[in-house]
Amino acid sequence: MKRIVPVILSGGVGSRLWPTSRALYPKQLLPLISDRGMLQETAARVGDADLFSAPIVISNEDHRFIIAAQLQEIRIEAALHVLEPTGRNTAPAAAAAAISCDPDDVLLVLPADHHIEDHESFLRAVEVGRTLSEKNHLVTFGIVPTGPETGYGYIRQAEALEIEGAFGVAEFVEKPAAAIAQSYLEVGGYHWNSGIFMFRADCLLTEMERFCPEILSVTRTAMAKGVREMDFVRLDAKTFDACPADSIDYAIMERTDKAAIIPVTMGWNDIGSWSSLWDIGEKDEDGNVRHGDVISVDSRNNYIRAESCLVATLGLEDVIVVETGDAVLVADKAHVQDIKSIVTEISSANRKEHIAHNRVHRPWGYYESLTNGDCHQVKHLMVSPGASLSLQLHNHRAEHWVVVKGTAKVTVGDEVSVLKENQSTYIPVKTKHRLENPFDEPVSIIEVQSGSYLGEDDIVRFEDIYGRSK
Predict the structure, then answer these.
(1) DSSP type of residue 274
(2) How do the domains of the chain map onto residue ranges?
(3) What is the mean pLDDT of residues 428-440?
(4) What pairing do the DSSP bridges indicate for beta strands 259-264 and 138-143?
């Protein structure tokens, strides 16, 4: 029996989990529940080599190297990593995966940012889903509701199918008001829409040809014109930008007569807000979920997260407090679904706190800004073993590098040297240079920039081992 092909969708930005989730480092890459990022948890969930093949990952191209590094950390190698130049929702992403597979492959489509506590129940549901998929059903997994939740869409089951534990789909229902959600619980047969799907590749493509042919056609062309770059396939940007944006639910599942639902209880949570993390978090005797350096006095039922400094609370109740070094969020727990409005305000003010953290990850390691002024900036650079920055120059700034830990190979103009701890070098404006770490230990550099313009776009690349042109 062929193994199931996991398709991990990692295209979102998770703005409701700001300030921890940012556009360049969104929630699915963050260790919000365990020591591993949520994408890592998802990949590990389908890591059984007897049941699953290597995963296909669909992501924003800005996250390509972070995802590759995270998968390498848990010793999982993607069979294919498709890079979207722009997000077009889940239907085009599923189409790209299906186009890449054999017609009889069974695909399990999983968002990268969900928490599933009961792994055995998940696997049992997947086995039922495979049987249904092989009978040409398009399967969705419905979560048996534990309360009148108004933040999820619902699916109403129809008659039982020939496979035990599976039903037809009567209808998809939008997020309901509280009274309606309560009535769903009382009537029964309504399940939360998990956003997890399963189908044969050829069955999905056939239904897309019926119901959303433009999405399928544009995605086929974008795949055909795409460029394979290292371990990635980059969709053709001009083509894919014209693709209609739609979800699997709206484009196919609500319209097909082949839909099936498997109700399942598996400790599922989509981690859609800070209150979700409070719901599943380990609470102290006062009902607080605390992460990091936190002191809480006379405070109850709060979620408090400190990432870089001490956070102390006094007399708070049902509040979210999140500190990330460059931003602090304080919100009533009942209003956390509206955090997107804060992100919109930040973007409208031309600020950058919704895009990146102080620590910015790169394929060679990371950098973080320590201080900056009108004509100067100080950064800490960490270059991983075997990694290298591009051969580059800057038109507007000079740089001074000081090695504070490890050993670095440095190119400045035509000179190549090896710098050890407490040694330094100077790079004048418009001088080609490169920083490399061909050694076995990470190297830390303090970089002092000076010049009339210090933006990250003042980089002219000549060579780059990661294939970056900008």
Answers:
(1) H
(2) 5-269, 274-347, 359-463
(3) 97
(4) parallel
How far is the C-alpha of 357 from the C-alpha of 46, rounded, in Å?
30
Q: Give strand pairing partners of 434.
A: 411
Instruction: Burial-class residue 424 by CB neighbours within 10 Å (0-12, 13-18, 19+).
Output: middle
Q: Give the β-pairing of 190-200 and 154-160.
A: antiparallel
Task: Please give the structure tokens belonging to residue 269.
Answer: 């949570």
Residue-wise burial string across 294-333, b where 16 or more C-beta atoms lie within 10 A, e elsewhere: bebeebbebbbbbbeeebebeebeebbbbbbebbebebeb
Q: What is the mean pLDDT of residues 55-80?
A: 94
Pair of tokens at residue 308:
């870089």
* Gap between the Cα atoms of 246 and 249, Å rounded: 8
Q: Are the CB atoms for 37 and 17 separated by under 8 Å?
A: no
CA atoms within 13 A on the CB side of 451: 18
Rounded Cα–Cα distance for residues 267 and 144 (Å): 10
- Say how far apart CA 170 and CA 260 lie, in whole Å: 9
**Model confidence, pTM:** 0.90
Q: Are 308 and 322 in contact (CB under 8 A)?
A: no
Q: Report the topology of domain 359-463.
A: Jelly Rolls (2.60.120)
Q: Report how far residue 25's alpha carbon sits from residue 354's, in angstroms, rounded to the nearest whole number.
A: 10
Tokens of 273: 């807000």
Largest CA distance in the chain: 77
- The C-alpha atoms of residue 130 and residue 134 are separated, in whole angstroms, by 6
CA 154, 142, 193 angle in degrees (round to 5)?
Answer: 40
Domain at 5-269: CATH code: 3.90.550.10
435 DSSP β-pair partners: 410
User: Peptide bond preceding 19: is omega within 30 degrees of 0, i.e. cis?
Assistant: yes
The tens digit of pLDDT for each residue in 292-347 reads 999 999 999 999 999 999 999 999 999 999 999 999 999 999 999 899 999 999 99
Q: Which amino acid is at 158?
A: A
Judge contact between 222 and 235, C-beta under 8 A: yes
Pairing, β 227-229 against β 232-234: antiparallel
Integer angstrom CA distances of residue 197 from 120, 141, 453: 18, 7, 48
Q: What pLDDT shows up at residue 172?
A: 95
Count each helix (H run) and each strand (E run) in the chain, helices first: 11, 30
